[in-house]
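A reminder before we start the practical. When you read a complex entry, don't treat the lines as separate problems. The point of joint prediction is that each chain is placed relative to the others, so the output describes one connected object in space. Small molecules and nucleic acid strands, if listed, are placed in the same frame. In the example below there are two entries. Take a minute to note the order of the lines before looking further.
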Amino acid sequence: MESFIYIEPSEADIGPITKQIASRIKEIPPELRGPLKGIAIGHHLDDYKKSQLAGLIDELIIVDSPSEYAYNTEVISNILTDIVGEKDQGILFLGFTHQGMELGPVVGWRLGIPVMTSCVSFDWHGKEAYAQRTIFEGKLLVTCSVNMERGAVISVQKGAWKDLSSESKGDLPLTTVTWKEAWAAEKTEILAINEDVAEDKEDITKAEILVSIGRGLGGPEYLPDVKELADSLGGMISCTRPVIDLGWLPSYRQVGISGKTVAPLIYLALGISGQNNHVTGMDGSEIIIAVNKDPSAPIFNLANYGVVDDILEFVPELLRQIKDK
Amino acid sequence: MRVAVCCKGIPIGLNLESVHIAEGDIKSQGTDLYINEFDAYALEVALDLKESYGAETFALSLGPLRSQEVLYFSLAKGVDQALRVDGETNRPELAAGSLVQILKEIEPQIILTGVQSTDWGGGEVGVYLSQALNMSLAYAVVEISQISDTSIRIKKELGGGKIAEVALKLPVVLCIQSGIKPLQYVSAVKRKKARKIQIKPGGKLNLKDMEQSISGLMSYEFKEVTLTPREGQAEMLIGTRTEMAVKLLQIINESV
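Here is the predicted structure of the whole assembly.
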């Protein structure tokens, strides 16, 4: 038995999801999980990032892949399938991110091992593990027993587990795997990678206060009130995916799996139900205040403070109170 | 060019009482089924390919008889043919496996799915189809820019605001991200007309036929469905609207 974590390329630091997964899996007795190995494909880990992994994993595997294959999920799938499949009982953990949503089921299908996506809890007992995942927009939770005898693929929701990493502890054993031509892409070619750049230079990841809207706002005609509120509080506007899809706001304001990850001091969630795709991008906020007219909205499970009210009535009231002062 | 789009019927407004585990699967009691919101965007892409490239379009759905509503909706939107695979499952590997045979018969150059389903909350079916049918794959597709006889150019999200421009060999499975096209309204007249079009049988979900190929993937069991715990529940502000607004502003002021 060996456990592997796929380390996605990230910006300045090791991605939070990698640290969260490693922290949880390290708690599992080594006789169950075996050695915990990180897999990084390409050379996106500098010395600083490697030092962040010391103590979190038992070994780092770096696959020496050509730079043109960065973000090529066909190639990454080939590599992960080979490395995890080399062991009779290889367990692959990865984030429930865009990459993880694609890679996990590919590896599971090819190796013929169970795939459990979007997990929020994971307890390992002998040959079985109990994993929980949310269903029906986060309102319900299903518990599954996963047979671990032949290996498994487990993808984990961002923020489901705590990052327990501390300062670097000692050396991290490193293995470099040389590139194999058999891993080369046959069907997929990455032509370019582009970043969605903010036109008005507002960077929501740097805001101390975010006033964030969901489609519960009802329509773009109500945006001026929200903008006024954000300005009055000295914050910025952010939003959920459906708000982008509806064309109410530009995509660089999106928080969530396909948008930005934010951690402001105050996250004021207006008309946001609290689906996983969104909350994984904002659950690191210091104080979350949710306003929603549905008292059973999952956002109230996460928020520090909640108001059950119609935001179309409540936001004007907030503005009145600010003006009165 | 043939384009197949997978459209899942999703129950709306379920609660703990209407969901249970039976026969190794998650079952929901007989509510109406609506097209999975993410698949609705895949359907828009199929119709766009019909208009732009003259593609012959097929809508597929796995589900019980009541899931035909999803296919009538697809027909009303303008797909050429609709096929239903009879059966019901919330296991993604089974759902994918049940669609493989009919997709082999259709031989599409492009298979479209939504990026995930709103009930199960995963995005496995399109990925599994690409593996079962040995097709190229792109996940979270936000644009189709060019199609030739042998390849397709698309843009896909990588997360965190990054977009990859990718060329893929055909045939391909594209898991379509929401918002790729605006959802078009369908008139009541079109919906009524569509109900006169025959929905073709696309086979049956038969576990025995698939067991050998996906038994390893199926090595898990559903044990229990519960409400998502509310131990982290928010401190609710109460009082009149004005009182709640004042309190909320006070919390913000004291925290910043």
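Discuss with your neighbour: Chain B is about 30% helix and 35% strand. What might explain this?
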